[in-house]
Amino acid sequence: MWITKSPKITWIDILKPTKADIDFLKQQHNFHPIILDELLHLSNRSRVEFYQDYLYLTYHFPIYDRSIKTSRRAEVDFLITKEKIITVHYEDLEAIDTFARAINNNAHFKARATQDSARVVYYIIQEIIQFSLHQLRHVEDNIRKISQEIFKGYETQLLEKISYAKREILDFNVTSAPQKILLESLLDVGKKFWGEEERIYFADLVGDYSKLTQQVENYRATIEALESTNGQLLNAKTNRVMQRFTILAFLTFPIFLFVSLAEVEFINTFIAENPLRFWSILIGVIVLVFSLIAIFKKKGWL
After folding, report:
1. Which of 170, 209, 164 is nearest to 186 (CA)?
2. Domain that holds residue 8
3. Are 134 and 248 within one domain?
4. H or E stretch including 10?
5. C-alpha to C-alpha distance for 100 and 94, rounded to whole angstroms
6. Quick one: average pLDDT of 76-105?
7. Strand-strand pairing, 84-89 and 10-15
8. What residues contact 199, with CB distance under 8 A and at least 6 apart?
9. Cα 68 from chain centre
10. Residue-wise pLDDT tens digits, 106-128
11. Measured between alpha carbons, how far is 205 from 129 in angstroms, rounded to an integer?
12. Boundary residue ending a domain (204, 236, 268)
């Protein structure tokens, strides 16, 4: 547990809450017992709930996990009164650490960010949104690498890379998309809880989140376009291979025909009468094959 105090606000940050932490929170405020029990484990959904003298907020956001090569869900819970902000999370979070360092190392920022509980909530969520935008750089890097390789003849290998990129965008969006409704709800609830003067801060969060969703949508459209292009290139390569096999079969047809005729008794007798006839026919077949090769090259089929 980590506690930061300013003249107007107290911020209590709890990492991996225990029963002792919950008992401490019971002494701080008259929070509902069911809500306090929920803080002992992760929540299934994002939500903001308005009680008589406090707010309860559950915020989910994506974190890229290198072990599974995609984004997973992280969670921050807020208990908000007019004088206290309590944040609860279940793992070390870069966004929370960044905000904590900022108010510890910058007295001017601390004075501005801790004027009231609304400002603390605003700056923490803003830091989370900025962190989410930073996480998208990994997606951007993957898309850039795919776009650089797409015309280099690696169509088959790119299928896997494109699939990973699509899954990452999908998982990121599944986690972050519900926050749009949550922030819009917070905008409405915040007006009731803090007053009209604080509305501008939460409207700004909705705007910042819109930038995030627009970025995700741009990446989704880009990777789908790259997938379509890669598919067309792969189909074209497959068609070229099939065309060459077809031409190869056509070129070998005269040879197979010659071998088949050589097994016919009449032809055997015909050749036996004069062995030079065999070489004449063979040379004719070879000339025919090379003539076809020359014609196919001139046509651009080979």
Report:
1. 209
2. 2-236
3. no
4. strand 10-15
5. 10
6. 94
7. parallel
8. 187, 190, 191
9. 12
10. 999 999 999 999 999 999 999 99
11. 8
12. 236
Exposure b/e, 81-105, CB count within 10 A at least 16 = b: beebbbbbbbeebebbeebbeebee
Q: 293 is written with which tokens?
A: 């090769």
The answer to pTM > 0.70 is yes
- Token pair of 216 as six digits: 């995700």
For 174-224, the pLDDT digits (tens) are 999 889 999 999 999 998 899 888 899 999 999 999 999 999 999 999 999
Torsion of CA 211, 190, 131, 165, to 10 degrees: -50
Q: How many Cα atoms occupy the beta-carbon half-sphere of 105 within 13 Å?
A: 6
176 burial level (CB within 10 Å; 0-12, 13-18, 19+): buried
Q: Are residues 10 and 93 in the same domain?
A: yes
Q: Specify the number of domains making up the chain.
A: 2
Instruction: Answer for the pair 26, 41: CB distance below 8 angstroms, yes or no.
Output: no
Pull the structure tokens for residue 182.
């949550």
* Statement to judge: residues 210 and 245 lie in one domain: no
Nearest of 204, 209, 203, 226 to residue 62 by alpha carbon: 209
| Residue 191's CATH number | 3.30.460.20
Give residues with Cβ within 8 angstroms of 140, minimum separation 6: 219
